[in-house]
Every structure is written in structure tokens, then in C-alpha cells.
Amino acid sequence: MTCAEAQELITALIDQELGQAERSSLEEHLSECSGCRLAFEEESALKNKIREAARGINAPGHLRSRILSDPRIFTEKSRPARRWQDYLRLMPPLLRPILAFALLLAIALPMFYFSKPASEPIALAALETYDRFLSGDLPVHRTENTDEIVRQLTRAVGGQFHPMGYDLTAMNLRPVAGLVREIDGRKVLVAIYQGQGGTLFCYTFLGSEQDAPTNAARFFEAAKKMNFYAFSRGRVNAVLHREGEIICILASAMPMEELLALAKSKAKPS
Ligand SMILES: [Zn+2]
Description:
There is one protein chain. The chain is α+β, with helices and mostly antiparallel strands. The protein has helices at 3-14, 20-32, 34-54, 61-68, 84-90, 95-114, 122-126, 128-134, 146-156, 256-266, and strands at 141-142, 174-183, 186-195, 198-206, 217-221, 226-233, 236-243, 246-252. It folds into 3 domains: 3-55; 61-113, no CATH class; 122-266, 3-Layer(aba) Sandwich (Protein Transport Mog1p, Chain A), CATH 3.40.1000. The chain has 10 helices and 8 strands. The longest helix has 21 residues, at 34-54. Bound molecules: zinc ion. Zinc ion binds at residues 3, 6, 29, 33, 35-36.
């Protein structure tokens, strides 16, 4: 079993959803691979923290009914509004504990994250350049030539890695500048696009998927067998993915769904 395969199964192992064969081969991998074992331990610890934090918390009745009457969850439109108890009765019995767990998460997760000490991972720290660029507060190398930006930035890291060099003209975005930042001793390449489509930053640096903020939403794209992590900082939305050793983050004030679709369309499986 590879590490990537193991990472995909770790959550299912914790939730006791694996069959005998998958469980044994994953457990075998965990006994030999400290990296995946760490991921497993961290995820188990997180689950425990959530369980602890959620103990003794009950969702207030008005919140429960708001969630249960939310059309984004229950799309039935033609009938008059039901009371939330009616929805519960309509649900297959198996779904009820899932819903209860979702409610718990909705309440317990924010509490858990607010109580964490504020240390900013590289992916979030990088986004700071977005607002600073828009307010003209960043020294950048201006050029409208993608190849030149790629060359300049690649040279800045001694050819170790390179920016993605995306062509975004279809979205009315043209390259305008490139710059290099150093965050926690790691070089981050920034290619900046602007146009009628707004402003978009493409960050690249050497790293792993562990560089995604812990509270990022993970989307697994089955077609490309890749993970995409969505998160935001202030009004800036960001989507992170990994290509080999290189982490790429697209950041923009455009809606998250558009940014996610763009990242998925441009990403190359490594
Ligand atoms: Zn592993």
C-alpha cells in the first residue's frame, strides 16, 4: 500500500468502516510508516477532541429547526414548511445519527478551532500578499509576459522548482507581475494575474498536503485522483493542490466555487 492510498483510508479506519482485508493492509502500512501513523494519530486525536468538546452541548431548538428547514439541505419546495420533527420521521433511520453528528459538528467544530492558538501556516501567511499588492504596498517585477515571469521566478529559486505558468486568458486574466516571498524559511513564488476577470494570485512552493490549513475543506477529485483544499483569509478565497513536490495555491476574491472549478481544470495529476 502506498502512502497516498493509506491517507485515503485513514478516516474510514477511525470510523470503523473498513473491511477486514483493507484494514489489515492499512494497519500493516501504519506499523511501518511513521508519516502515515502520525496522520492517523492526529486524526484520531481530533475526533476525540470533537467528541469531548461536544459532550454536554445540545443544539438549541431554533437552530435545529433552522438547519432542518434549510432548502440547501432539503430541496423539497412544493409543500408547505414542515416542522423539523416531521423531517426526522421522514429520514431513513440510518440517516438520523448522521444528521445528529452533523449538528454536533456544526456547533463543536467552531468552538474547537477558536480555542486553538493562533499560529498561521504558510498557506494562510502567503495570502497576506494579495491585499498588500492591491494597495500598492509590494515591490513586484512587472511584466505581461508569462514566459518571462516563469523564467524570473524559477531563477530566483535556483531552478529548484517553477511557477505553474497557467494561461488564464480564457478568464480575461493576464499575467502582470511576479514576486518571491520567504515565509518560515521557505521560498514562495507568486505569479499575479489581472484583468476584467479580477485579480488572481498563483502561489507555488515546495511542500506537502500537510501545508493546507487544518480547517480547509478537502475535495477529492476522482477523475484526477487529486485532493483540493479550499480555505479563505478575509475576503480572499484560496484553493490548494499538490503536483509532486510542488504545492500550488490559487487565490482570488472570486467565488469559491469558481476558484475550485478553475483549480480542478488546471491541475495536472503528478
Ligand atoms: Zn505511509
